[in-house]
Amino acid sequence: MAASQENTLIGLCDEAIDNNKKTRSTFYTSKIGGEPDKLPAVCLMCPSCSLCKSPLIHVVQVYCPLDTSPYHRTINVFACTNTDCHGKCDGWKVLRSQCLESDVKSSTEAAGAQQVSAVQEAPMFSTDWCDDADDWGVEEECGETWTTSQTQTLQTTSMSATKAAPDVSSQLQSLSISTVEEDSQPKGPAFKPFYISVVEESDFTRDTGMEHAQELLREYEQREGATMMELGDCGGGGEEKYEKAEARHGDAVFSGFMKKVSLCPEQVLRYYRNGSPLFISKPMLDLKQMVPPCSYCGSGRTFEFQLMPALVTLLCTSDDNSELAVEFGTVLVYTCHSSCWKSGSNSPMEEFAVVQPDPDQRLFK
Questions:
Q1: Which of 98, 177, 184, 198 has minimal CB crowding within 10 Å?
Q2: Dist. CA 328–CA 86, nearest whole Å
Q3: Residue 71 gets which letter from DSSP?
Q4: Distance CA 104, CA 214 (A)
């Protein structure tokens, strides 16, 4: 998902992710749910809700490098599933992580050297007791999957040569797994993971089957006394003009939102860095009052992407007995305009989310 484009990019739910397979997700992956994938040298811990202090659940991961930056760049969004925290900005956390390609290569080389060392030091008969005994879950691709044990390395102890064949117990003793940076927090629940596929919004407007929809749109504009261009101004930017587009039923912002979404009701995410967000209701404050500047470098923040209502129904767990859920109308993610990052940093940068509840949740169920 590129971070600069002429058109809005639409994120759609793709196939489910099966991390039991060899093709696991990495920080390159844009996805729904699951556990966030850490970047090399970045410690990504599970954040807590600022309101109720409960652990937050991972909602989406977006890989979005900037064309003018040498950094890999991934944004992870977390939410509180406590109903009292729904619709409140403090119940959400946005973390931005970055790394250089040299960090990726170093991590890959270190993992490769570690595997070679394990193979050289382990006795040849270590594969006799398990079909895949030499497969210890070390990632073949760059980036490790974020788990409860944040970084787990395979170490083997040297075994002095002996003429007598060792028994099975001595074989097992020659292998040991030591844990580094053990995460004290137990692994919590997670939403089912799905890949996110990306298309341009303009692809839908060019669809030959949209003529009828455009005709209905023109009829709506005549009936409500507001044009699509006027309603589109409600979508954001620094100079919104809400009074200009008051439809007869009094909710021009929501109408504009619904008409825009109707081009692709299945969209779970809209991406347009430095573009205009699509508000679902009229904001109580203007953008300068709503969105604080970057707390690290002081630069202003810019709109990057937003989560859409269709995502709500996809946020479910594999446990049928679990009642975890997140309710929202749309979540607008704002990030540092300069995407500041200190070389060698091992902590993600916290960004800002504006949460708008759904004026009529029934429309999306």
A1: 184
A2: 7
A3: E
A4: 47
Sequence-separated (6 or more) residues with CB below 8 Å from residue 12: 196, 197, 198, 199, 264, 266, 267, 268
- The overall pTM is greater than 0.85: no
Q: How far apart are CA 73 and CA 98, in angstroms?
A: 5
46-78 pLDDT, tens digit each: 899 999 999 999 999 999 999 989 999 999 999
Band (139; pLDDT cuts 50, 70, 90): very low
Contact 353, 97 (CB under 8 A): no
Per-residue 3-state assignment (H helix, E strand, C coil) for 306-359: EECHHHHHHCCCCCCCCCCCCCCCEEEEEEECCCCCCCCCCCCEECEEEEECCC
Place of tokens 């949460």: 355
Instruction: Copy the structure tokens of residue 31.
Output: 């996805």
Which DSSP state fits 192? P
Residue 24, both tokens = 């696991």
Taking a C-beta distance cutoff of 8 angstroms, is the pair 295, 12 a contact? Answer: no
Q: Which two tokens stand for residue 312?
A: 């709500």
Rg (CA), the chain: 24
Helix (H, G, I), strand (E, B) or coil at 53: coil
Bridge partner list, 307: 269, 331
Determine phi and psi for 100, rounding to 5 degrees.
Answer: -85, 160
Place of tokens 């929809």: 213
